[in-house]
Design a protein that fits this description.
- It is built from three helices and three strands; from the N terminus they run αβαβαβ.
- It is α+β, with helices and mostly antiparallel strands and 112 residues long.
- The longest helix has 16 residues.
Length: 112
Amino acid sequence: MTGSDGRSAATPHEAPLRGDPEARRGELNQPRTLKARVYVMPKNGVLDPQGKAIGHALNSLGFAGVKEVRAGKVIELDLAESDPAKAKTLAEEMARKLLANTVIESFRVELV
């Protein structure tokens, strides 16, 4: 694209070149992030119908050595936090408030 003076004009949607110092400066100012994994499992003594169904399916496929299956979930979070202690506390708070039903589920947080 050329401007009215005949010179090439950059369009606003063009990304800056990799070697552009302005672009690199922006990358350096990005906050460091930490990744947390939240493991959520049914508490012992709580009925786990999904685990039972998986166990029956494994048995029907010939895996007779499986005695019990407990099914849970893993949630990965990218947190805009550079302090590991604060990141873990934040992920634990998220788990308590939303990610796990603490009446019937337990959870564990791990930073990766």
